[in-house]
Write a structure and sequence with these properties.
Radius of gyration: 18 Å
Shape: elongated
Number of strands: 2
Strand content: 5-15%
Helix content: 40-55%
Largest sheet: 2 strands, antiparallel
Structural class: mainly alpha
Order of helices and strands: HHHEEHHH
Distance between the termini: 25 Å
Number of helices: 6
């Protein structure tokens, strides 16, 4: 299942993408609008800022804002930043591959075969969607 961190991160990015002139938005406004715990949202937005999706302005009129166009924010990248691997098993992952301890033959493993197909289809959907696709 998708973690709340990832769900809320996507909701916050969508909220920011829908801002008219990309003006900074205070965390409290996003939290209230999207029904997200303020403390939890702070940590998510900090992660997104450190990953190059958001900028932050301090002081009066400050808050978070997108530093990339929504059309340039790929959802597979967002997912990997917030959630981690797209594959459900380490042996089926492109970026986080690890051999399973209990598997003697990956080539004939039915579980790996199925999870590789799940990964491929999930990856295709995430890679073919941008923040602009889901926000508008």
């Amino acid at each position: 299942m998708l973690s709340k961190k990832t769900k809320y991160g996507i909701k916050a990015l969508t909220f920011l993408a829908r801002q008219e002139d990309n003006t900074p938005v205070q965390i409290a406004e996003i939290a209230k609008s999207e029904n997200i715990s303020l403390k939890f949202l702070e940590s998510i937005l900090l992660l997104l800022r450190n990953s190059g999706f958001l900028g932050a302005k301090k002081g009066k009129g400050g808050g978070y804002y997108l530093i990339k166009e929504p059309k340039d924010i790929n959802m597979a990248h967002v997912y990997r930043i917030l959630e981690g691997p797209i594959a459900l098993l380490p042996c089926a992952s492109h970026n986080f591959y690890e051999k399973c301890d209990d598997c003697s033959d990956e080539v004939s493993c039915a579980v790996r075969k199925l999870m590789t197909e799940v990964r491929d289809n999930t990856l295709m959907i995430l890679e073919n969607n941008t923040l602009a696709d889901i926000a508008f």
